[in-house]
Amino acid sequence: MTPSVTIVGGGLGGLTLAQILHTRGIPATVCELEASPTARDQGGTLDLHEDSGRRALAEAGLTAEFRAVVREEGEALRILDGHGTVRYEETGGGTRPEVDRGELKRILAGSLPDGVVRWGAKVTAVSPGRLTLATGEVVEADLVVGADGTWSKVRPVLSDAVPSYSGLSFVEAHLSDVDNRHPAAAALVGPGSMFALAEGKGLIAQRTGGGRIRVYAAVRTGDATAATGLADRGRLLDVFAGFAPELRALVADSEGALIPRPIHALPVGHRWARVPGTTLLGDAAHVMSPFAGEGANLAMLDATELALALADHDDVENALSAYEAAMFPRAEEAARASADNLEACFAPGTPDAMVEQMTRFAAQH
Fold first, then answer.
1. Using one digit for the tens of pLDDT, what is the confidence trace for 345-364?
2. Residue 244: pLDDT above 80?
3. Taking the complete model, does pTM exceed 0.85, yes or no?
4. In this structure, are residues 113 and 251 in contact, taking their beta carbons and an 8 Å threshold?
5. What are the two backbone dihedrals, phi and then psi, of residue 152, each rounded to the nearest 5 degrees?
6. What does the H/E/C string look like for 37-95?
7. E-only strand ranges, 116-185
8. How far apart are CA 336 and CA 296, in angstroms?
9. Separation between Cα atoms, residue 174 and residue 22, nearest integer Å
């Protein structure tokens, strides 16, 4: 019998799962809080890895659509010190092309039949195989999948774990029409990503589509609430007083309000005992800092492995056992690398540790 599947969360992982299930003839419904796929800014750019994100798109039948929107030049990377001196640079080799998150979500959402995603569907309560919406509607399914991110409403059905503050906060800023309005910033960042690092802080910038640059000012602080106070240009610029003027200009010249983003993570090795009719994927299962570059790729790989397990097994519980047995160690390895990389990026002597790490990585590939 074909199982009924309800997915909580219409991000990259949830949409990927729904689309791969659709290609295998397994219907699914996605309950998503946001009113539409463009209801908010979807974030910056990401590189899709061949064995995870791009494999997921291939299983979803969306490789051609992906290739139409990739930015291969986005692979370029620069690592600078706080004085603006370039310590490491690579142009990329076309093996890990970048794509804007908004474009990727558009492709995934647009691939699904009308009605699969219930936009504006707020989930208020979850139990195994059952969820309640804000309207009072009760939805029952053979399988409920939590793809609803860091503060998942589905996770408590499976685990008591709660994401904890990592000790690092981002403050997000934006520059638009950079080739015309901010040519110095465009030249500094280049076509891809730039890291300017010093002990305990850094400026991370990404060139995205449409002539934009997204900036993350990263600060080590023991208090997650400090990120809100740092979302003030004057105060944030004081934190980066020792940085080169051209680097500080990425914040000083940014447009609109600054956005505080404290970084949280689940414990490395987070896992749970099998609970009938319920599982997690992506950040709901293993949220980590972004310093492994695996977040979206892992979510899409989770979705792929779960969809294929459901297609290959006649029994939902056997499918979930097989999926979780492979997902737990994979997520643990990525989470450990993420935590280690965060420390390397902001340790004493920075950016030497990151330069050494990238040099080793380049030599291996």
1. 888 878 877 777 777 766 66
2. yes
3. yes
4. no
5. -55, 135
6. CCCCCCCCEEECCCCCHHHHHHHCCCHHHHHCCCEHHHHCEEEEECCCCEEEEECCCCC
7. 117-119, 123-127, 130-133, 138-140, 143-146, 164-175
8. 16
9. 37
